[in-house]
């Protein structure tokens, strides 16, 4: 939908909030983005990542042409190679030897075609998705309780609630616009909804919380089982609802009582003070309008499905489900995690919320007129890569995900791909750890270049629309899949003119032999079955179900109506379940992993933006000062985090927000950006027995100082191919420059020769350097016409000059005498501000600027800071950090 002004309404490609974005392409090709005021997810708001989308669209580093065996080839050659490889594997080893591993970031149309090809035409269910790592415990929990995978909540429920419980969700950083909507509601409603956060760490989401429970990792189901017992004891059970619409309440209660029967029992098991547990239970019991929002702290656990059902049990028992302001709410991570569930992208689903029951299998086969059909579930992600390692899978096609960085036991994943006879990877980016393993590389179009739909956390389907031309030979994923299907002999079933036809078929399948009134299948968008291309182009956001004829169900489950055959929900009786791998003497700490505010997953997009890279430039481990002291770790030094599966080296960050005994490392860095920061190499491959979701938040590890011979960093206008002789290298995008943090275990003899070789490609004729042999400090800078081209700083320890100040010198056309002097002295001289690490990404305000203003001008609130420096006044994501700076400065 592009109007005369060149504006295109589309959807943000990042998180599951699914914000509407308006993209405008100017005559010179430059793009501007802003929030879509009409989109029901965000009403015009965007977070830091959404606002910086235009900074990630350049073609640097893109995979633009197909490659076979490292050679650039035409699409004809590449597609023939894929089809021949797959056909040969099928002929020699059968369908179970072939697998696809896809992504919750694919558009629904890409996803639908991939699933149809594998399950209906190749005839195996060996197609799984990275949503296995993300949502599968929620899916399994929903299915156990509701009989189907329905998310009953809506964003408006969050605003209408009187209490929101955030369980294992850092909403402020990971679903920022939803978090801002909650804060706006609190401001308008006199502090309601109240906010309770349950997370072992004190996160940014705790900033405004009325209560934070720093729960012992992995123990959430005990807490919620204890809550069920408490609700029962306090007469807070909705007996009418339980009687009319559920089964199994007493058994669940009995099971909960056995291991979570009293507040002291729960407090002990969850590592919480008894009063805190009692306060949370009381707040939940006395508040009718409660929404429990949960995410990866719940799902990514070897007891994730039980955690989900422990939460659902409490909502079912109190009848707090499906009514305004109430309900359990699993917020989805990826932009199309929900769409993937709708098309059946998981190995244990079929399509359109059907699974492998005989009726479903027959129905889907009939609808597709498929020659064969998978009749049983395929391998789930972790098992799939194990099967690759064991040679049972001989051809794998990875689409839109980077498993060598994001799957647990990631070194084993890489080894599996290296051993696999045929690895095909479709990606938009050339240099990723997974693309590096591919025999055949297929250039995928990405956000801004392709058309389709996505479904957000509240079941709202929105269009993503292209506003850029296809670069190089890149093609949308649906096209690539259909071309391969055609070459495999299935042309007639994959003969789509474009995404509109695919969407219409998907909609028709959702309505096929379905009956909205009969509770056959919840997912029904039959109203879109006849959509033609112009209507598809004009589609405005809508929530499902949307059956033909328009008679949808307003809300799910307020009046029961579950999809269990007898329409009754199921309570699940739960017992305690210990993590598969527990800490021991050799690996005494628990590694927790997750996200940072301004980065998205494996950095292929946000890593391109200097603004977004500034907030957390380097991979780090957040460690409680007590643990740091115990293991001899000092702030800012490098630390080795190791487990029985692998190791990583990252920067130590001491933080009282961390729970003692736990270490937190972000998941984002792969080897192109950080040579030793790939934390999934350390993460254990344990999975939940019901969902197969990996335990990404709980790996026994040990930490130790990693002491290289020297530490250093380089700032350079031109990218440098650093690597040789370095044992640690992190690459960060800066404004008009590249920053490299480096270290090595081998001492350097001749620093000057070393630095010349390092910066060899710099054309500068001016070379200035300084060497303090006694202190082991070396500094050098390459200049041209008084302009700084590159500089390198080396020291025996991690204490090195402020990078932000030095980066500022790169903005000068010529350095003053004073600036040159301070460059070599390695510290800012008078009148040379060091703004420090960026806190506010929107207005690029650094920590030193903030602290200085707080001190000098006595700024005591984020609003006061905003009035002076603008920090925190756009997306609001940094407000928790502003508040923390105010508190720290006052102390
Ligand atoms: N900035 C940013 N936002 C994102 C993404 C991103 O990459 N960057 N990715 C998106 C995706 S795909 C997803 S899935 C979501 C994830 O969104 P979230 O689930 O909110 O993010 P995480 O940081 O993975 O984990 C949430 C929290 O779980 C806590 N946790 C760990 N163990 C436990 C436990 O045993 N119990 C409890 N209660 N909590 C625990 C962690 O300390 C962490 O703070 O974010 C989405 N949004
Ligand atoms: N330790 C640990 N590991 C985790 C997690 C954690 O919390 N801790 N979280 C897990 C979760 S919830 C998730 S969702 C995963 C995310 O992990 P991944 O899915 O591996 O991460 P991304 O970087 O999003 O990978 C997407 C890839 O698709 C490419 N791409 C972009 N657009 C397109 C397109 O249109 N088509 C194609 N074909 N490719 C495209 C990108 O360049 C990129 O390489 O990580 C999981 N791994
Ligand atoms: S909240 Fe999520 S969908 Fe919205 S702008 Fe931010 S990353 Fe994009
Ligand atoms: Mo995710």
From TrEMBL:
GO terms for cellular component: membrane; oxidoreductase complex. It catalyses: 2 Fe(II)-[cytochrome] + nitrate + 2 H(+) = 2 Fe(III)-[cytochrome] + nitrite + H2O. GO terms for biological process: cellular respiration; nitrate assimilation. Keywords: 4Fe-4S, Electron transport, Iron, Iron-sulfur, Metal-binding, Molybdenum, Nitrate assimilation, Oxidoreductase, Periplasm, Signal, Transport. Its EC number is 1.9.6.1. SMART domains: Molybdop_Fe4S4. SUPFAM superfamilies: ADC-like, Formate dehydrogenase/DMSO reductase, domains 1-3. Gene3D superfamilies: 2.40.40.20, 3.40.50.740, ADC-like domains, BFD-like [2Fe-2S]-binding domain, Dimethylsulfoxide Reductase, domain 2. Signal peptide: none annotated. It holds the Pfam family Molybdopterin. It comes from the Bacteria. One of its GO terms (molecular function) is molybdopterin cofactor binding. The keyword Disulfide bond does not apply. Its cofactor is [4Fe-4S] cluster; Mo-bis(molybdopterin guanine dinucleotide). Residues 5-61 form the 4Fe-4S Mo/W bis-MGD-type domain. PROSITE patterns: 4FE4S_MOW_BIS_MGD, MOLYBDOPTERIN_PROK_1. Catalytic subunit of the periplasmic nitrate reductase complex NapAB. Receives electrons from NapB and catalyzes the reduction of nitrate to nitrite. Belongs to the prokaryotic molybdopterin-containing oxidoreductase family. NasA/NapA/NarB subfamily. This is nitrate reductase (cytochrome). It comes from Plasticicumulans lactativorans.
């Amino acid at each position: 939908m592009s109007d005369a002004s060149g504006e295109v309404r589309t959807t943000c490609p990042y998180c599951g909030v699914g914000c509407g974005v308006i993209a405008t392409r100017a005559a010179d090709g430059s793009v501007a983005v802003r929030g879509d005021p009409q989109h029901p997810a965000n009403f015009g708001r965007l977070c830091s990542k959404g606002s910086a989308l235009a900074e990630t669209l350049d073609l640097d580093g893109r995979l633009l042409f197909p490659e076979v065996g490292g050679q650039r080839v035409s699409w004809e050659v590449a597609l023939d190679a894929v089809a021949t490889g797959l056909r040969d594997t099928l002929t020699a080893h059968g369908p179970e030897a072939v697998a696809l591993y896809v992504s919750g970031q694919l558009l629904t149309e890409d996803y639908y075609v991939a699933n149809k090809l594998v399950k209906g035409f190749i005839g195996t269910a060996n197609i799984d998705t990275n949503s296995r790592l993300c949502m599968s415990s929620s899916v399994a929990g929903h299915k156990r309780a509701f009989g189907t995978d329905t998310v009953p909540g809506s964003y408006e429920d969050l605003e209408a609630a009187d209490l929101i419980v955030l369980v294992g969700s850092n909403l402020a950083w990971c679903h920022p616009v939803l978090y801002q909507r909650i804060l706006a509601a609190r401001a308008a409603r006199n502090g309601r909804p109240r906010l309770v956060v349950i997370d072992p760490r004190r996160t940014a989401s705790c900033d405004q919380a009325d209560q934070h429970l720093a729960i012992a990792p992995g123990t959430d189901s005990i807490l919620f089982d204890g809550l069920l017992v408490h609700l029962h004891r306090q007469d807070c059970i909705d007996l009418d609802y339980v009687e009319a619409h559920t089964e199994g309440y007493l058994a669940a209660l009995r099971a909960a009582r056995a291991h979570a029967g009293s507040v002291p029992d729960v407090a002990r098991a969850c590592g919480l003070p008894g009063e805190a547990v009692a306060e949370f239970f009381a707040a939940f019991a006395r508040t009718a309008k409660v929404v429990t929002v949960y995410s990866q702290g719940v799902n990514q656990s070897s007891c994730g499905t039980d955690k989900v059902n422990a939460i659902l049990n409490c909502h079912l028992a109190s009848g707090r489900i499906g009514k305004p302001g109430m309900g359990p709410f699993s917020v989805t991570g990826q932009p199309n995690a929900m769409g993937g569930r709708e098309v059946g992208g998981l190995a244990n689903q079929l399509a359109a919320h059907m699974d492998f029951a005989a009726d479903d299998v027959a129905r889907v086969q009939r609808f597709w007129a498929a020659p064969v059909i998978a009749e049983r579930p395929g391998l789930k992600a972790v098992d799939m890569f194990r099967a690759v390692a064991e040679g049972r899978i001989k051809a794998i096609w990875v689409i839109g995900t980077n498993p060598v960085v994001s799957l647990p036991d990631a070194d084993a994943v890489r080894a599996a791909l290296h051993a696999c006879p045929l690895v095909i990877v479709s990606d938009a980016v050339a240099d990723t750890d997974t693309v590096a393993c591919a025999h055949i590389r297929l250039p995928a179009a990405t956000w801004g270049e392709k058309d389709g739909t996505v479904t957000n956390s509240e079941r709202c389907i929105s269009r993503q629309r292209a506003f850029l031309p296809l670069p190089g030979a890149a093609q949308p994923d649906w096209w690539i899949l259909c071309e391969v299907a055609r070459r495999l002999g299935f042309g007639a079933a994959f003969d789509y003119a474009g995404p509109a036809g695919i969407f219409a078929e998907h909609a028709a399948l959702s309505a096929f032999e379905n009956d909205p009134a009969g509770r056959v299948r919840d997912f029904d968008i039959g109203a879109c079955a006849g959509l033609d291309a112009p209507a598809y182009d004009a589609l405005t956001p809508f929530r499902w179900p949307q059956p033909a004829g328009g008679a949808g169900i307003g809300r799910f489950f307020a009046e029961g109506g579950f999809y269990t055959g007898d329409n009754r929900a199921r309570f699940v009786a739960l017992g305690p379940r210990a993590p598969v791998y527990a800490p021991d003497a050799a690996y005494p700490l628990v590694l927790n992993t997750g996200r940072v505010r301004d980065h998205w997953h494996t950095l292929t997009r946000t890593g391109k933006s200097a603004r977004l890279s500034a907030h957390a430039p380097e991979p780090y481990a957040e460690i409680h000062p007590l643990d740091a002291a115990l293991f001899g770790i000092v702030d800012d030094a490098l630390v080795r985090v190791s487990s029985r599966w692998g190791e990583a080296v990252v920067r130590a960050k001491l933080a009282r927000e961390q729970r003692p005994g736990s270490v937190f490392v972000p998941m984002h860095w792969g080897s192109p950006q950080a040579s030793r920061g790939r934390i999934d190499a350390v993460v254990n491959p344990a999975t939940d027995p019901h969902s197969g979701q990996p335990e990404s938040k709980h790996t026994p590890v040990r930490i130790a100082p990693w002491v290289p011979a020297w530490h250093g960093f380089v700032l350079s206008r031109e990218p440098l191919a650093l690597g040789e002789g370095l044992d640690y290298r992190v690459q960060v995008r800066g404004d008009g420059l590249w920053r490299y943090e480096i270290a090595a275990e081998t001492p350097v003899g001749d620093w000057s020769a070393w630095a010349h070789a390092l910066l060899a490609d710099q054309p500068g004729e001016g070379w200035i350097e300084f060497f303090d042999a006694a202190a082991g400090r070396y500094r050098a800078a390459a200049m041209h016409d008084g302009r700084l081209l590159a500089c390198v700083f080396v020291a025996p320890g991690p204490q090195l000059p402020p990078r932000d100040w030095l980066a500022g010198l790169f903005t000068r056309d010529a350095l003053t005498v004073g600036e040159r002097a301070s460059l070599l002295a390695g510290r800012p001289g008078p009148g040379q501000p060091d703004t420090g690490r960026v806190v506010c990404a929107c207005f690029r305000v650094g920590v030193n600027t903030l602290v200085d203003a707080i001190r000098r001008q006595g700024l005591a609130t984020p609003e006061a800071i905003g009035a002076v420096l603008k920090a925190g006044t756009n997306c609001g994501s940094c407000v928790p950090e502003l508040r923390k700076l105010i508190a720290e400065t006052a102390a």
